[in-house]
Amino acid sequence: MVLTGSRSKQAILLVLLLLVLVSNFLAYRLPAIPIPADSRGVVIGSLLDFTIVAPLLILALTRKKGFTIKRFLTFMVMGLIAARFIIPTEHFAPFKVLPYVAIGFEGLIILAEIGLLFLLAKHLPAIIKDLKQSNSSSLFAFPRLVKERVSAHPLISIIAAEVLMFYYAVASWKRQPPVGQNLFTLHRKTSMLALNIMLIHAIVIETIGIHWWLHEKSFILSVVLLVLNVYSVIYFIADIQAIRLNPLKMNEDHLQLSLGLSKRMEIPYEAIKKVDWGTDAEAYPLKEKNLIEFIARDFEDVKPQCIIHFNRPLKATLFLGAEKEFNTAAIRVDDLERFKQTLSKKL
């Protein structure tokens, strides 16, 4: 029922967006709709549709990606450019400078983002130095240091995630998986690492087999496929290392858990409302909204051993540094009894 209602809202928003675009297109082309000699009022109305109404409808359609001022401004610029092509030249003439101003403004935003990248490069040696002096996991500490020293801008978060990926793929092989009474692995009793290795083999075989055939058909497409396959191999190698080197950790005041590069989270003990174990945890619906899984993949379906309910929404970091709030976490560890006893003591 909820899914149907959501789709209905999406359909209504899409119809409204099409009506805005089509009505503005036809307004200047249907003989039945008279345009006054001084058409500036009509054009201003169209510009408001393209720069305010349409961007808001698009943001509503893509609300899962979040509302940001930058996204709104980007859609405004796109709306002005679209208006330049839809509104006839004779009517748009008094406003012809607006698209260029909008493009220039967007260019300033891009320059500011490039400046952030230079700022990251400037602070990177100091961040790496702090990491070496810290006992914290790079998976958690590096993004936090980047936010503190540089910016929490989404572009910087993406770059930080990529740096982490290349670090784990290339520079982490001398490190050994940590061990301790407060550390708990999630993958050793599963086939998760084997599945990742199988995926790497499949990608390599596909690259060798298809790339040369595709190279003769379309050089550009073959290069694009090659780059994507190489990136995928690097990602899966890094993911294997991130899983091995970052077991679940119980610190003094919070629980630190991750599952490779795809998800990580810190749960303060004071934010834990209740914990379900055993059959209660196994029966909990994993498809429930606002639930995050820390369950290693296996050849067969596996159930959670522990469901942690929060007393407030907590943020988790997902693929490419994206953040999302969750109310519940489903967990499966290799040593359940020791994990249960240790968590009970912490609580």
Structural class: alpha+beta
The helix tally amounts to: 11
- Determine the strand fraction and express it as a percent band: 5-15%
Mean pLDDT: 82
Q: How many DSSP-defined strands?
A: 8
**What number of domains?**
3
Low-confidence region ranges = none
First-to-last CA distance:
38 Å
Give the helix level as a range of percent: 55-70%
- Biggest sheet layout: 8 strands, mixed
* Inertia-based shape: elongated
Rg (C-alpha, Å)? 26 Å
Q: Secondary-structure element order, as H and E?
A: HHHHHHHEHHEEEEHEEEH
Can you give a write-up of this model?
This protein has helices at residues 2-27, 40-61, 69-86, 89-92, 98-133, 138-149, 154-171, 192-217, 219-245, 278-282, 336-346; strands spanning 183-184, 248-250, 254-258, 264-268, 272-277, 291-294, 306-317, 323-331. It is an alpha+beta fold and 347 residues long. It has three domains: 2-96, no CATH class; 109-171; 181-347, no CATH class. Strands 1, 2, 3, 4, 5, 6, 7 and 8 form an eight-stranded mixed beta sheet that branches. It is elongated. It starts with a helix and ends with a helix. Keywords: Membrane, Transmembrane, Transmembrane helix. The chain crosses the membrane at residues 43-62, 69-87, 99-121, 154-173, 193-214, 219-238.
